[in-house]
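Quick one, probably user error.
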């Protein structure tokens, strides 16, 4: 079971690293709604993202920065799912 999880995680990380740089440059759904209704200037940042606009800060190469942001997001998602799974199983 553990081996399958590691293979799945490894595959997801590889896909995130290699495919993230080719994601659409168009705004996502929420950004598009704000733009369509002219609310962009009224919106404000509540939390600061460590990888804003899906780009990891401090890396000059944009494609590499986007790939690393994809890996970061995949690891974060995996970590949260793992934590929730452990908590549910322990009940």
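Nope, works fine. Designed sequence:
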């Amino acid at each position: 079971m553990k081996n399958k999880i590691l293979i799945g995680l490894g595959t997801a990380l590889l896909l995130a690293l290699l495919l993230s740089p080719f994601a659409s440059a168009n705004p996502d759904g929420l950004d598009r709604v704000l733009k369509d209704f002219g609310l962009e200037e009224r919106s404000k940042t509540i939390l600061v993202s460590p990888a804003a606009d899906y780009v990891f800060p401090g890396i000059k190469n944009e494609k590499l920065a986007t790939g690393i942001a994809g890996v970061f997001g995949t690891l974060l998602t995996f970590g949260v799912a793992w934590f929730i799974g452990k908590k549910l199983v322990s009940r």
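Residues 2-89 form one domain.
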